[in-house]
Amino acid sequence: MAEVPEIRVRTLVDAPLREDGDFVLYWMTAARRPRFNYGLDHAVHHAMTLGKPLVVLECVRIGYEWACARFHRFILDGMRDNAAYFAEHDVRYHPYVEPEAGAGKGLLKALAQDACLVVTDDFPAFFLPRMLEAAADQLDDVVRLDAVDSNGLFPMHATDKVFARAHDFRRHLQKTLLEHLEPAPLERPFVGKDVTGGVVPRAVLDRWPAATKGMLEGDEVAELPIDQSIGPAELEGGFRAGEAQLDDFLAHRYGAYGEGRNHPDDDAASGLSPYLHFGYVSAHDVFARIVEREEWTAEKQPTKATGQRSWWAMGESGQAFLDEVITWREVGLNMCSHRSDYDEYESLPDWARKTLAEHAGDAREHVYDVETFAQGETHDPLWNAAQRQLRETGIMHNYLRMLWGKKILEWTEKPRDALAVMIELNNRYALDGRDPNSYSGIFWVLGRYDRAWGPERPIYGKIRYMTSESTRRKLRMNDYLERWSDAGG
Fold first, then answer.
1. Which of 60, 114, 200, 314 could form a disulfide with 22 if both were Cys (CB 3.0 to 4.6 A apart)?
2. pTM score, two decimals?
3. Which structural domain range is residue 43 located in?
């Protein structure tokens, strides 16, 4: 019964295990999946060690910023799948959907009163770090609280350094990542383990009842006091849909990913970012599937750390995809886990803030407010198409996200305004918004993880420059533009 690596566990309330408790409580908050999940593995391990049942608590709040029917429905899809999975394995699962803001207050502490320990997920962005701090305060005199990092292949706290460039982070991974690949989280956490389901106290059930079947099926989302103007996406949430998306990518698009991922018409992107953000798909599962397909072994891997992108001993698609899902995704986890100001303008590199300040007063030919941007009503058909895709579906083609951000910088009065607009639109509409990787992309527009570029230009200064015209020439996107130029009326 292997334990989770110590580097992935942070004890937020350092209290002894309560051996007289009724159950081990796993509070699922970010890794919303029952497979390949270090947090669940940690909880199962302690349940087995203590000979106690397991209770899994998963909640969705009402009062979080940008709460809307789109995000709620995506989360509820996952809760529906989790309910079925835990029922199959006789583990007690309590899904709670807050009917109004603040109604869930006290639920965690009430359940923790009877727990041997509480295990939760360690996620470094959005409101979750503040939520864990509040939980630690509530449980300080009650029970031990462990937060487990199940976000990426490289443990967030395996280094104290914040990397300023992806090249430097990549070089660090080339030196250290292999030692962290094992033990991987378990695909089948209950196989061979006699884990039983605990009993949720009647007082808890009466005050915080489990979500109804209709709520988990999405039939009652429209009744919740959240933004209903941003409706559910066509994309289905949940770990089963996430694993199906991975299967489909590997079967139909993976071979073309290396060359075709930047071309909207080629449809070679993985489509996994929403599932990674909500914790439905594990980076370890993705890596294992790529390794199997590429017949990769650690012995084949070069030992020299160069920081170059093509560092995996694999084909072009494998190299390109793993660099995105590991290097670029996890450099954001690195930033967010070590700097609380990851989403603030002041976190930009000194050179970027300096050049943007020098050009903050440059004349802008076009200036739009946030709602004009939101509706995709600028003068630029390509930008409008990308924004309409985001608004209607909750996703945007990855390459076009770069252009999307650059033009917002160009069409707002000040760089700080541009940052605020990018964060607002991305977090309002994107299924993969509010995520370390999203913040990496937004701040890259303004110079994070980049370098100074020449020639120096109006508005941009030394920030990397992009144009719709050059993007249109470089990419295959006729079908994309035909689809999204008039979307949404």
1. 114
2. 0.96
3. 1-150
